[in-house]
């Protein structure tokens, strides 16, 4: 796994979100530049659809609850250009870096809410192919500090 270079991570807070609030409705859009290796994390009440390109290689995440339990839900679109097998392999290789970027980029949020470092991360690999369409547990945010 490539380690995060904080100098290449740019964080933007959209209206309605501060570095520490809210929890529910807080959404992350992580995009990148293949040319510069820069990462762009947008934190807002909505996903930053304006930052998503036709390659659909972004990582989307949000805080959700189910049956009274909080978790971080992450979504990646596995279908698309190059097919699900290649995109699935790329996402699996790059997701640890993406999760580290979210954890580091929103570190003041985690300092304000330390209990969130221990909630599960569920990743939805979205595909029309049943083999690649999966929901998987990827640990907790503290695993990506």
Automatic annotation (TrEMBL):
Organism: Clostridium polyendosporum
Key words, A-Z: Transit peptide
PANTHER family, alphabetized: LP06106P, PROTEIN STAY-GREEN 1, CHLOROPLASTIC-RELATED
Protein name (record): Staygreen protein domain-containing protein
One Pfam family from the record: Staygreen
Entry keyword Transit peptide: yes
Superkingdom: Bacteria
Upper classification of the organism: Bacteria, Bacillati, Bacillota, Clostridia, Eubacteriales
Residue span, Staygreen protein domain: 4-144
